[in-house]
Amino acid sequence: MADKKGIMKFLNDWVFKPNYVITKTIRNFMDNMGILDPIDQFIYTKIEDPLFYMWFTNSYDLKIINDEVIPSEEEGCCVFAANHQSIMDPLVSGLAIVHNSRRIPFQLTKAELGKDPMLGNFVDMNQTIFIERGEHDIEALEKCVSEIKENNRPILVYPEGTYGPGNGVMLEFKTGVARIAWDAQVPIIPMATWGIDKIMGKEASRSMKPPKSEGKLRVKFGDPIPLSRLFPGKSAEDQISREEFQKGTEKVQQAVQGIWSELNQKELEQY
Fold first, then answer.
1. Residue 50 and residue 87: Cα distance in Å, rounded?
2. 207 pLDDT above the threshold of 60
């Protein structure tokens, strides 16, 4: 155990941290030149998407269901709300969105991951907006709204804020997802991943154990939830109270929970 810790400390101090700093510096330089985002998008859609799709399809029988509800660029934008069970969620959920629709979502991601010397730059290049823990990082939420309104870029949110227990049990959703949708005046598309907790669940994700080599992955999108359903009787000029945001968020959670249950029931019926 001591040798393992020593090796990890050596790698962290002499490999991961220096590489993180060098790569971060290069990425900042490219960002200042205005070429970083196009390069990241190219890598995400032309390299990562086909590679991960091949991996997930061959190893985990990945099926993407009902993604035709994702709006085209001409149809407008949306906020995606997904359950969160694994460190693999951003790969699987992001892939499910972009693979057929070609819409590239920004993913709202905890800030700690962006500072991780081993994963930070990889996470950063995968279309992320970093948020401090909790739901009061106003700057991050405003950045999400700006990307929707100014650049027509959808946002993918994991409203639980951290890994849930899995097996369909979800933590209480935070209200940020409803706040972003309201401020941007776009609908929310609920979505659920099924099976990922069996491949690499909460504990495996936190200890960075490798995923299992076999399993099943299902991702299903629900119908868009319009703001009129989340906040009945409200117009864009109205102020929304904390209680109303909470009630709207509860409707989103019920939708995500329902989609997961539908997936689970269908898989159970096959046995």
1. 20
2. yes
